[in-house]
Specification:
Layout lengths: L7 H27 L5 E5 L2 E8 L8 H4 L3 H21 L3 H24 L2 E9 L2 E2 L5 H28 L1
Antiparallel strand pairs: 1-2, 2-3, 3-4
Helix pairs in contact: 1-3, 1-4, 3-4, 4-5
């Protein structure tokens, strides 16, 4: 019997939808149940749940520039998100399709937040000895994971090319 695999496009769609839904479900649970009332909840010695709203780009960068302009932030992020989504759908390999779809799925979740409430809901507070990474969410996790997979794939390809030529 022949083994049938799903084409990269099917993986891209499934990954994008899953990343988006996990992000939105986690934000809904945080807003409606976990952070009522808002407080700091220690999960691990280096991880807290802390409710925050980000008007900037990833990890709060450019918040001053985009503060009070959620639709501009949504439009800029949305345009870039479309590029990642179309790239995921056009990818020729499953790992590349998944990587681009993770980025697009997370970004769509953050764009929806900006449109719906003017800022992105963040709640993961990573810290160490008084130093805190900017609060983030599961969309940021999927975006970072997708970008890491892309870089790892590109480095692997570069290593294979170098090995075959050297």
């Amino acid at each position: 019997m022949k083994h049938v695999t799903q084409p990269p496009r099917a993986w891209a769609v499934a990954t994008l939808v899953t990343a988006f839904l996990v992000d939105q479900l986690s934000k809904w649970m945080i807003l409606e149940f976990v952070m009522r009332p808002p407080r700091i909840i220690e999960i691990l010695p280096v991880l807290n749940l802390t409710l925050g709203f980000n008007e900037g780009t990833s990890f709060g960068m450019f918040s001053g520039l985009l503060s009070g302009r959620p639709m501009l932030a949504a439009a800029l992020t949305g345009a870039l998100t479309l590029v990642f989504a179309f790239t995921a759908l056009r990818s020729r390999t499953v790992p590349e399709a998944i990587a681009f779809a993770l980025i697009a799925g997370g970004a769509i979740g953050n764009v929806l937040d900006r449109i719906r409430q003017g800022a992105v809901t963040d709640f993961l507070d990573l810290h160490w000895q008084g130093w805190h990474w900017p609060t983030f969410n599961l969309a940021d996790v999927t975006i970072t994971l997708g970008a890491s997979l892309l870089v790892a794939g590109w480095l692997r390809q570069a290593g294979l090319r170098e090995k075959s030529h050297g």
